[in-house]
Design a protein that fits this description.
The chain has about 230 residues and is an all-alpha fold. The protein has a single domain, classed as Growth Hormone, Chain: A (Up-down Bundle). It contains eleven helices and no strands. The longest helix has about 35 residues.
C-alpha cells in the first residue's frame, strides 16, 4: 500500500515537472518579443501572427486530443505530446527566416491542448477525497512556469541567445517524453471510484461508431428521436 502511494505521488511529481517546464516553454515567446522581432525585422502585427498561429492550432486540436484520450492509453499519448513539444521547439530554434518560424511556432500549439488526458489520468490515480488537493498542486506549476520563463527570457536570453533557450526547453521536453513513456503506467478508467473498490478487474468501455449506428436502427428509439427533434 505504501509503495503504491509513493508511486502515485511520483507520478504527480512527473506531471508537475511536465506542466512547469511546458508552461515555461509555452510562455517564453512573449518575453522574447524584442530579440525575435529584431532578428527577423518584423512589426508588432507580424509578431502577433506568431502567437495567433499556436492558439489557432491548439484550439482546433482540443477535441481531437480528447477523442484520442478516450480511445487510447493516456500515458503514452502524454509522452507523445511531450516529444512533440520538444521537437517543435527545436524546429523553432533552427529556422532562419520569418515564415518558417511562424509555421514552427504554430506547430507548438499541437501539444498545448494535451492537458485533458493528464487530468483524466490523475483522476484515476487518486480517490475523490484527494483529487482537489492534487489538482491544486498541479495548477501551481502554471504561474511558476510563467515566472521561470520570464527569468530565462529577461536574464539568460541576452547572455546565451533566445535560440539557445529554445534548445534547452526543447531538450527538456524530449527527456520528459522518455520519462513519461517508461515511468507512468496507464491505470483502468474509474479505478479510484468508490463504487469499484475491491474489484479485481474493471471492464474497459470505448466509444463505438458501429454500436451508435445500431441504436438509431432500433424502432423502440424512434419515439425518443421524434420527441427530441420535434
Amino acid at each position: 500500500m505504501k509503495t503504491e502511494k509513493r508511486y502515485r505521488w511520483k507520478v504527480v511529481g512527473i506531471f508537475f515537472t511536465f506542466m512547469l517546464l511546458h508552461q515555461t516553454d509555452k510562455l517564453l515567446i512573449g518575453p522574447l518579443k524584442g530579440p525575435i522581432s529584431e532578428e527577423f525585422g518584423i512589426t508588432n502585427t507580424q509578431f502577433g501572427l506568431i502567437i495567433s498561429g499556436s492558439l489557432i492550432v491548439s484550439t482546433i486540436l482540443y477535441p481531437i486530443w480528447g477523442y484520442l484520450y478516450d480511445r487510447y492509453a493516456r500515458a503514452k499519448l502524454l509522452a507523445l505530446a511531450s516529444f512533440i513539444w520538444g521537437a517543435t521547439t527545436w524546429l523553432s530554434a533552427i529556422v532562419k527566416s520569418y515564415i518558417p518560424f511562424v509555421m514552427t511556432c504554430a506547430s507548438t500549439g499541437i501539444d498545448d491542448s494535451s492537458y485533458p488526458g493528464l487530468y483524466s489520468l490523475i483522476v484515476d490515480y487518486f480517490s475523490p477525497t484527494e483529487r482537489s488537493k492534487v489538482n491544486g498542486i498541479l495548477q501551481v506549476s502554471q504561474p511558476i512556469g510563467y515566472l521561470v520563463g520570464m527569468v530565462l527570457a529577461l536574464m539568460l536570453a541576452p547572455v546565451i541567445g533566445w535560440r539557445t533557450i529554445f534548445y534547452i526547453t526543447g531538450s527538456l521536453g524530449i527527456i520528459l517524453s522518455v520519462i513519461i513513456y517508461f515511468k507512468v503506467k496507464e491505470v483502468p478508467r474509474g479505478k479510484s471510484e468508490p463504487a469499484f473498490d475491491g474489484m479485481d478487474e474493471i471492464g474497459q468501455i470505448h466509444f463505438s461508431w458501429g454500436a451508435a449506428k445500431e441504436v438509431f436502427k432500433k424502432k423502440t428509439m424512434w419515439f425518443i428521436w421524434n420527441y427530441v427533434f420535434y
